[in-house]
Amino acid sequence: MKHATKDGAIVVRGKLLGGSKLSDVVVRNGKVEAVRPAGRGAADIGGPKAFIGPTLFDIQVNGFGGINLQGDKVVPEDFSKIGAMLAKWGVSHWIPTLITGAQRDMEHGCRIFVEALQDKEVARAVPGIHLEGPYISPVDGPRGAHAKRHVRKPSIREFDRLMKAADGKISYTTVAPELPGAIEYIKAVTTRGVVVSLGHHNGSTEEIARAVDAGATLCTHVGNGIAAQINRHFNPIWPQLADDRLTCSFIADLEHLPENVLKVFMRAKGPERTILTSDVVHIAGLKPGHYDLGGMPVELKPSGRICLSGTELLAGSTLVLLQGIVNVAEHTDLTLEEAFASASRVPAKALGLKHKFDLPRRGRKADFVVFELAGAKGRRNAKVRASFVNGRRMV
Fold first, then answer.
1. Where are the domains of the chain?
2. CATH class of the region 9-53+357-393
3. In CATH, what class is 56-351?
4. What pLDDT does 143 receive?
5. By C-alpha distance, which of 199, 150, 144, 64 is closest to 311?
């Protein structure tokens, strides 16, 4: 890897997303000094095969690199460590997810998150928490890998306790719309400024419509957290895809959703209502083997697939968001530029994050990722060459 020139500038070369010609981005002291057509001399980073894109926003992170955000062992430093690891993959903003658990453990996670915000980098990168449960379906299939013993009916009283523990910083909550009290819960939560997402449910068309009327605007990893066998016409997938008031998130690791399913789902929602997320868990980056995930035994297979032990039922992912973007650009109608937007600007709009996720611009802090594509078309992998987040080079 080349270093900065003698005058302290770093020249980054690649195609800016949406463009066809090579550009040089000159970075000095953490700021973009110039964006210009590529010169004849050698660049410090990148080259003819490189792409330059904005940083990313992952709205569903359960853990990463052996660090688990679930349970009662979470400490404030976990958030900064995960943030630093994600930043190396171009993720500048992210939302920690607390999955279904005992109330004391979920409150603990909220309180530790507030402590973590004393770190300025965590406060900059993390706008709030995602509660993925505990108000989800108790039924096998829709419940997914969540522990059944901790699933419970919606309670605004409990939610307010969690909100207090999180110092008001709950960004969104996932709920099953068919549960008793779900509609009242959705109405109450939205008045508190929290976004409601439908997920891990078996809601009917009518129940989903009532939830949207009550204020739900998102859907959590559509196509997953659902029964393995469903009615071909009357199931939770179609009404969520059909309702233009709903923005849907998808896990594009090609395990949770096969290529053809991913393509059809995204055709239904369009790039403006599509969010790409990782749903990554702490097992990501570890060796294949048996692990505990929120009290549930799981197995990380050599392929990278995580399943409930003894089954083929998925339990989170090992996906990095940049690879999900590449998968979408390879297998759906979305361009690479649109796929990037679905992992940055679209979720930012859906959750009220004001960061713009722009390409490099003169005079602004360096905030972009440089990557190349390796492998045969259709199975290409993202290789990060450099990542700049908030003016700092992370890799």
1. 9-53+357-393, 56-351
2. mainly beta
3. alpha beta
4. 95
5. 144
